[in-house]
Amino acid sequence: MRFIVADDDPVFGHALQKSLAREGFAVDRVECRKDFMEASACNHYDFAILDLVLPDGGGEEILRHIRSSLPQLPVIVVSSSRSTGQRVSLLDLGADDFLVKPLDLDELIARIRCVIRRLPEEHFEAASSASGPLQLFSQRSCASLHGQSVPLTHREFWVLEVLVRKKNKIVSRSEIEDALYGWGDEVDSNAVEVYIHKLRRKLSPDLIHTIRGVGYQLSPMLENAARACN
């Protein structure tokens, strides 16, 4: 699953990012309302963690946006406010849960698991992203190519997801490393090459093109196949 975390506290945000990564989730972190809106418009997310206080606008406005534009997206709100009235208001507005800062990250992860358990079965069957005959299922960390399902490790999935999200562009090595590693993690020098090799072996040798000195790109043949079927 891919999470988006909207929180401008670097200490809490980075700690949460690492905790979610240890649970096998991919995480994008933003620090303001503007970046949240841009990220959610361009990417598919399976879960949102939302702080109520952001530099350029309240989290309540973002929650209203989510419920009008992304009604199926699970949202947990975190805030330093201890107002019962505010918690009631936000839960009525559509938040799936509400936690007061400072909070225990283990409890937050447990509450995330509770929300995930309540999701309908069809939520897990829907492809999170696709490129022609290649479909990704983030909740099950697997890919389907020409109807053939292939299980992937979390990091294999994250690498492939980055390439699919930017399927018409060349993705640099550093961009892929950002998807593989959390803040403060040590980056293995050949990690990207290793995961690209594993994806080619599992799915297709021609799935990913290496653009020497620049990065990697998903094969244009996937999109061509999609257009040919339409």
Alpha carbon gap, first and last residue: 29 Å
Helix residue percentage: 40-55%
Structural class: alpha/beta
H/E element order: EHEHEEEHEHEHHEEEEHHHEEH
> What is the average per-residue confidence, as pLDDT, rounded to a whole number?
83
Gyration radius (Cα, Å) is: 18 Å
| Main beta sheet | 5 strands, parallel
Approximately how much beta-strand content do the residues carry? 15-25%
What spatial form do the alpha-carbon principal axes imply? elongated
The count of DSSP E runs of length 2 or more, i.e. the number of strands, is 13
- Biggest sheet strand order reads 2-1-3-6-7
CATH topology of the largest domain: Rossmann fold
Architecture of the largest domain, according to CATH? 3-Layer(aba) Sandwich
The CATH class label of the largest domain is Alpha Beta
Describe the structure.
This protein folds into 2 domains: 2-119, Response regulator (Rossmann fold); 125-229, Arc Repressor Mutant, subunit A. The protein is 46% helix and 22% strand. It contains 10 helices and 13 strands. The strands form 4 sheets. Strands 2-1-3-6-7 form a 5-stranded parallel beta sheet, with helices on both faces. Strand 9 (134-137) and strand 10 form a beta hairpin. It starts with a strand and ends with a helix. The relative contact order is 0.11.
